[in-house]
Every structure is written in structure tokens, then in C-alpha cells.
Amino acid sequence: MTATTEREVEIAGPTGSPAERFTSADPDAFAVPNGREEQWRFTPVRRLRELFQPLTSQDTCEFETELPDGVRLSYVGRDHPLVGSVLVPADRVSALAAANVATVVLVEIAANAVLDAPIVLRSIGKPGVNYGHFVISVGSFAKATLVMDHVGEATVAANVEVVLGDGADFGLISVQDWDPGAIHLAAHAAKVGRDAQYRHTSITLGGDIVRLLPTVTFDGPGGNAELYGLAFAGAGQHFESRLYVDHSVPNCTSNVVYKNALDAESARTVWIGDVRIRPAAIGTSTYELNRNLLLTDGARADSVPNLEIETGEITGAGHASATGRFDDLQLFYLQSRGIPEDEARRLVVRGFFADIVSHIDVPTLRDRLMASIDRRLGAEPAAESAE
Length: 387
Hints:
This protein is mainly β. The protein has 2 domains: about 5-325, no CATH class; about 325-385, no CATH class. It has helices at about 5-10, 90-100, 330-335, 340-355, 365-375; strands at about 60-65, 70-75, 105-110, 120-125, 130-140, 145-150, 155-165, 170-175, 185-190, 195-205, 210-220, 225-235, 240-245, 255-260, 270-275, 285-295, 300-310, 315-325. The strands form 2 sheets. The chain has a 9-stranded mixed beta sheet with strand order 1-4-6-8-10-12-14-16-18, covered by helices on one side. The protein has a 9-stranded mixed beta sheet with strand order 2-3-5-7-9-11-13-15-17, with helices on one face. It is globular. The N and C termini lie far apart (about 65 Å).
């Protein structure tokens, strides 16, 4: 029998379980995408060709931080022991970013720290190509929220690694509020310790192409992961999320809820949800949900939930996906109560996103999000909350 190389396996695509993923730290282990590969078949690869080859980062993103007490930020090299401890790239762009980034941002949250304000890492982009790599280390029994806020215009390929110690409670909120013309591809990987709680929230409102790959693995029993996503796509925008939750230890839970609204004929969203329950993961409970609201004829939302169960000794597992157009009956009901059409339309969209917004524990960010949605719908944003 002839031996098969890793590169040949990757080019051929998955040949067994749909939950199997090829990973490698070597960019050359991945073929240059042409759009026919499973992991790229929904993506406009012609608009991303620049990122499929090694680049010198132009570092056009300014970096601002807000660091409460109990947080330490430093800049380290790729040889730091935490770099690569969680994330092994699953595509060529992620591997190129990991191999070519010059400096890694390390955020360390002390054990037992309870932060009374969110950590904020704000990237303010200017035109140019940027590689980024962030490692967030959350000490045992620490409790914190970190906001990664992306604004301006840039081309970004980045990796984010999150290490949660035992008993930690941590929320990562990634906001993609780019200007038109921005391209953002990022892989987010988290390792959840014993009895730790992890919340990952993705908010995508701006940019031309945003493609995020959140992944979760569990490092001990009792871990819980919640992944939430909200995207509002307009003309020419392509917003894509590919999730992978790997249950390999007993008695862990995961819950995924992603919602997308599309408000232009050329708007496009993609959601891929992969959950794997390995033989050792007895007592697992998992559920994934994707909902897509089409506000305009011609908009396209692709939704592909995948669930692979390799043991019968689980608590529960399921998935659901639905895509539908704007509900004229809801609109008629509100208008019959004297609410103008534009206001009624805004209320329906706000209600669609309400359960995602409720999980954002930063009041100023909730206000900013809803104001942005109001503007997209042609309404004056509501007054900011006094919270």
C-alpha cells in the first residue's frame, strides 16, 4: 500500500467522518484554495487570493487597550510555550498567519481575579495587510470578559487562542464593525478546563468579507461552552462562520446559537456548525441552532449543521436550522396597532436578535449594537442606556 502524505489528504478533502478536520502548523501542508474544497466552497476565494501566499505584515492596525486590575498584557515571540498550545491551523490562511506573525499579544488574567470591568483590545485599521496572533490565559477560578473590537479598514488574517484554567468563567466578545472594504479572516480556538465556563460571542456588522472559525475543546470534565453569533449583512457583504466543538472528555456541555439577517440582494451569510462527541465523552449535552432572516429577495444564507455522535451514553444532542423571509403577518399585526411600517420592521428585526443581545454583558456594547442595527434599517438610533 502506498503511503499518503498529509498534503495529499488535505487536497483530497475529508474521506471519513465529516467531523474529522485536517490540521497542520505548516502552511505548505495546505493547497492553495480554489473554491472547490469543502472548507472553501461557500467563500469568494477570488477576492482573497492575496492572503493565500506568505506576506510581510504592514502593521496598519493601531492598537488600543483598556486593562482592569488583575490583567497583564505583554508582547512575546512565537516560541512562547502558550503559543500554539491550543490552536493548530485548519486552513492555509490561519497557518500562514501563525508562521509569519512577528509578535504575539499575550493577555494574562490572574488566578482568582474577578474583574469589575471588561478588558478591551481595540484594533483601528488602515488599508494594508496585517497578521495578528493573540493568546489569552485565564487563571483558575478567574472571572472576566474581554472585548476584541475591530473598526476602520484593513485586511487581517489572525489567530486567537484562549486557555481557561479550572473553574474559570470567561467571555470573549469579538466585534467586527469594519468600514467597507475590510477583509477579516480569523481562527479562534479555546481550551476549556475542568468545571470552567466559556462564552464566545461574535458580532459582525461591517466589512466586505468576514470569515471566523471558532473552535472549542475540553480539557477536563464539567466544562461548559456557549457560542453566540449575530450578523447583519448588507449589499456585497459576505459573512461566514465555521464552528467546531470537540467533546472528548465526559460530562461537558455546549450550546450554539447563531442568527443572521440579510438586507440586500447581494448579501450573503454562511454558517457551518460541526459538533463531535467522541467515544470517551459520556454524559455530553449539546445543541446547535442557526436562524437566518431574509429581509430582501435575492439574499442568500447557507446553513449546514453537522452532529457526529460516537457514544450512546450522552445526556442529549441536537441541532436545528431555518431560513425564512421577513414575516409580513408580523408586520401587518404591528401596523394594525398604529405602528408605522419602518418602525414595525425595526421592531421585528430587534426581536429576532433579542436572545443574542441579552447574552452580551457589556451595556455600552449592547447599546452600540442596537444603534447600528437601527441605522442599517434607516431609523434614528435610540438614546443610549444610562447603565
